[in-house]
Design a protein that fits this description.
Helices cover 36% and strands 18% of the residues. It is α/β, with parallel strands linked by helices. Helix 2 runs antiparallel to helix 3 and helix 8 packs antiparallel against helix 9.
Length: 307
Amino acid sequence: MPYPIEKKLVIAVSSSALFDMEESDAIFRQYGEKAYREYQRKNIDNPLGTGVAFPFIKRLLSLNNAFPKECPVEVILFSKNSPETGLRAFRSIQHYELNISRACFSSGNSNHQYLPAFNSTLFLTTNIEDAREALANGITAGVVGKQEIHDSNEEGLCLAFDFDGVIADDSSEKVYKKHGLGPYQEYEKVYGTHPLGSGPIADLLKRISSFQKLERIKQYKDPNYNRLLRTAIVTARNAPAHERVVFTLLSLGVEVDEVFFMGGVEKARLLNILKPHIFFDDQTAHLENIKDIAGVHIPFGIANANA
């Protein structure tokens, strides 16, 4: 029987998001492909350092330990390396004992078109053009920043999300951009109980929320069970535009643990206390001052129209 990939939560990740490839990339830029191949061949048994997305991926894969019967999470390595130079990445995966066995190596060519074959819910990359191309073709993708991450040994996974242009579509954002704050607030009063359409990351939140429901059941049966997952929404909205968030979440059938209506207060002030392992936002300005958090830019919608 074929492997049931359609039943899995699949995250595709580039080798440069999963591992620290700066030294390798510098060889490629300075000396070219031949030198890069030779460098990777010589260092094949030297594990690559961990990248910005590494803690998130490692913690996400740990959900398979919590649900051993379902093993619901699958991570696919998506790389523009050749299969030969990709050997070092796979040996690094083995070194860190990550349960990643599937990959795509495209030898410098575009590879986003293959993501649907693997049932990908999200593609994490460091290349903004790759992310934009994937999003333009209806495939959810985000750009991992260059933050320095010092991961702890504590169990669990906390995911935080912006709302407009991330969980929801950007239709309200368009009203704000076109007409300004006053008309936007009036618009939200009128349509506050009308759910917004799904944004690019809605499916990921829905899948994570389904695991949270399973964890609540486990905790009900076993009060000593410590839940692994935590979710939060951190949005620039505030009253009177707050109701739209609640009704949209209800329409998606998801529950989140925390919602923060920042009303223009810098999100980093809250995020550096919350300390999620990953945060998704459609504007890079909200990712600039976060610390020890994998910031992911979703280059989607009106906020990125002129970028």
